[in-house]
Specification:
Elements lengths: L4 H20 L5 H19 L3 H17 L1 H28 L16 H12 L1
Helix pairs in contact: 1-4, 2-3
Organism: Bacillus halotolerans
Protein name: Protein liaI
Keywords: Membrane, Transmembrane, Transmembrane helix
């Protein structure tokens, strides 16, 4: 893989994405996110079952917990997008600059080296 501007840019995006994922988005917000999701689900189920007051209360508490977790979700989404596009940029950058690993040109019929002469002489002697 050759290093060019796209490869360097992709690497920088991946590093920033990983730092946002592990540093900016602390995993402490995952617990309220899960609890909020479960409360919202339970509230919707109760509301559908005819228990409107408890359904609205549970759904409201769960929705507030989910809204409070919104910065965490945005940070995680941003980190994932940065890593994805950084990886994509690195792969495209290396594919454009690297035409092929090793593709020797075929020898022309008119080109004869000293080794070829000696090899032909050796084959004739056999």
């Amino acid at each position: 893989m050759k290093i060019n501007k796209k490869t360097i840019g992709g690497f920088i995006l991946i590093v920033f994405g990983i730092s946002v994922f592990f540093g900016g988005g602390s995993f402490g917000f995952m617990i309220p996110l899960a609890i909020g999701g479960l409360l919202t689900y339970a509230g919707i189920k109760r509301f559908a079952a005819g228990k409107t007051i408890t359904g609205i209360i549970l759904g409201g508490i769960g929705a507030m917990m989910l809204i409070c977790s919104l910065p965490f979700l945005v940070g995680i989404a941003l980190a994932a997008a940065m890593v994805y596009y950084g990886w994509k940029l690195m792969k495209n950058g290396s594919a454009e600059s690297d035409v092929s690993g090793f593709d020797p040109e075929p020898a022309s019929a008119g080109y004869q080296s000293h080794f070829d002469d000696e090899w032909e002489n050796f084959l004739k002697k056999k």
